[in-house]
Amino acid sequence: xxxxxxxxxxxxxxxxxxxxxxxxxxxxxxxxxxxxxLVGDDPASEVYVRQKAKAAQEVGIRSTVRHLPAxxxxxxxxxxxxxxxxxxxxxxxxxxxxxxxxxxxxxxxEAIPPEKDVDGFTPVNMGRMLTGVGEYFVPCxxxxxxxxxxxxxxxxxxxxxAVIGRSNIVGKPTALLLLAEDMTVTVLHSRxxxxxxxxxxxxxxxxxVGRPHLVTRSYVKPGAVVVDVGINRxxxxxxxxxxxxxxxxxxxxxxxxxxxxxxxxxAMLLANTHLAAVRRRA
Length: 282
Hints:
Pathway: One-carbon metabolism; tetrahydrofolate interconversion. The structure is a single chain. By secondary structure, the chain is of the alpha/beta class. 40% of the residues lie in helices and 16% in strands. The protein is built from 9 helices and 11 strands. Helix 6 crosses helix 7 and helix 6 (140-152) packs across helix 9 (261-281). The protein is globular.
């Protein structure tokens, strides 16, 4: 049976590290400030925003939430982002996604200054991450995935990795991080033919597609590290990942859902916010 990687425990370690660093920064008169912009009344988004604000406060990061109605125009949202960008007291800006359909996520994200883009989603940060040139922020979930992999102690250099999912938020940046660890990386997606033939060769398998129990044991190399980024709510209310429970019988390490990658995403947001404050003001 696979060893379960406790994301909650690891996230708590990261939070304590951040809290100590924030305390040292605060002693110098610098209090990191995270501003979150929420547009609309999506219940899930409201829960996520509350969780992030609470987590920030617990480590000593100041957190403010700007809430615009769902009918707010794109220009109004851009004006709010511009105001936060100009506010020298704000270190990090997070725009909660998804936005209402009539608002361009691309335009809004492009309006966030790279030095305040603690989500790591802007084209400038993505480009710097791709090239490795200049300062940038690593997107929170991929950063959490890498921290989880390092926690296992499994050697990464020279090994094979497969990433199922090619989103700009998780799949692509995760692949870049694994490349930077000198892994041989293959990215698979909905158009990939015979994906199992590739994933069965992978020492590390990261799954981020949002399809309940997509990955079964036939996808997995015995002893592999399996990181399940997906989180899906079934009709009976249960939260499940993209990886079928039977994979635990063959994998060497696996992240549970919930309690795996999710807590690490929030923890890495806190780390990025502290880093933004250090770069801007320390």
